[in-house]
Amino acid sequence: MTIALEFLNFIIPISVIERKYPGGWQQCRTDYIGEADGPARHDDQLFRLGAMDPFSMGLMVNEWEEMGFQIERKVKGESRWNHGCIIGAGECAPTLPCVWLMVADDGMSAWMKPGHPYETNLSKRS
Questions:
Q1: pLDDT surpasses 50 at 126
Q2: Which end of the chain is more exposed for a tag (fewer CB within 10 A), N or C?
Q3: Dist. CA 118–CA 14, nearest whole Å
Q4: Cα dist. 97→9, 19, 124 in Å?
């Protein structure tokens, strides 16, 4: 499945949300997906929050980091996305390397890289 990208996008694997978000995926859904036209979208593997400007995106990322998500990490001195990823709509790649995210050629949708350890299938859960 894919998620549509709009403006600025903060994407988190649902399997990471289940482990790190207080109350897991169920609580995250309650907290963010209540509004039909809200900034949250998801497929069976990825959760997307949107923002219209970099300042708002930064505040959003800080909130998730305060919950214990390690959004970015260094690998051999190079910054990479870890538990989350930021990408702008129309961009063909995230702002930093992200090994678990695939982006459509037009930059308008994204999906989980098949076979990545973050890959999950919610339909197999109770």
A1: no
A2: C
A3: 8
A4: 15, 23, 29
pTM score: 0.89
103 contacts 94 by C-beta, under 8 angstroms: yes
d(CA 38, CA 21): 19
Which residues lie closer than 8 Å to 117 by C-beta, 6 or more apart?
A: none
pLDDT tens per residue, range 5-27 = 989 999 999 999 999 999 999 99
* CA–CA gap between residue 107 and residue 112 (Å, rounded): 14
HEC sequence for the chain: CCEECCCEEEEEEHHHHHHHCCCHHHHHHHHHCCCCCCCEEECCCEEEEEECCHHHHHHHHHHHHHCCCCCEEEECCEEEECCCEEEECCCCCCCCCCCCEEECCCCCEEEECCCCCCCCCHHHCC
Encoding tokens for residue 116?
A: 């990545």
